[in-house]
Amino acid sequence: LAHSPPLPFTLGCFISSTSRLLLPVDEIYVPQPTEPSKEGDKVMEWNYKDDGIVRKLERLVKEEIRAHSTEMGIPTLTESLEK
Questions:
Q1: Where are the beta strands (DSSP E) in the chain?
Q2: CA 76 to CA 82: how far, in whole Å?
Q3: How far is residue 2 from each of residues 13, 59, 83, measured CA to CA in Å?
Q4: What residues contact 7, with CB distance under 8 A and at least 6 apart?
Q5: Number of H helices and number of E strands within the chain?
Q6: Global pTM value
């Protein structure tokens, strides 16, 4: 991707892992080696519609994770700070 032209037609891009579930990528930057990225380094950008396939996949994955998860009874950070 770093040295190829943007794909002419893409619906979206995801990061998927045990900690990220299925996270849509909004932008891809390709900076010069050893340099931080800047606006001019952006090579692709997506603006997902709430009712589009990308957001639907994100919701479906979250629903599946919740459906197969077990409540552990551990307070969240926000709940802990409120006490």
A1: 14-17, 21-24, 27-29, 42-45
A2: 10
A3: 15, 30, 48
A4: 44
A5: 2, 4
A6: 0.60
Mean local confidence (pLDDT), 49-66:
88
Please, what sign has the CA dihedral across residues 5, 49, 61, 25?
A: positive
What is the rounded distance in angstroms from the CA atom of residue 24 to the CA atom of residue 1? 17
Q: What residue type is assigned to position 56 of the chain?
A: K
If you search the block for the tokens 């045990």, which residue do you land on?
18
Torsion of CA 32, 1, 12, 36, to 10 degrees: -10
Q: What is the pLDDT of residue 82?
A: 78
> In the structure encoding, which two tokens stand for residue 49, read together?
């519609």
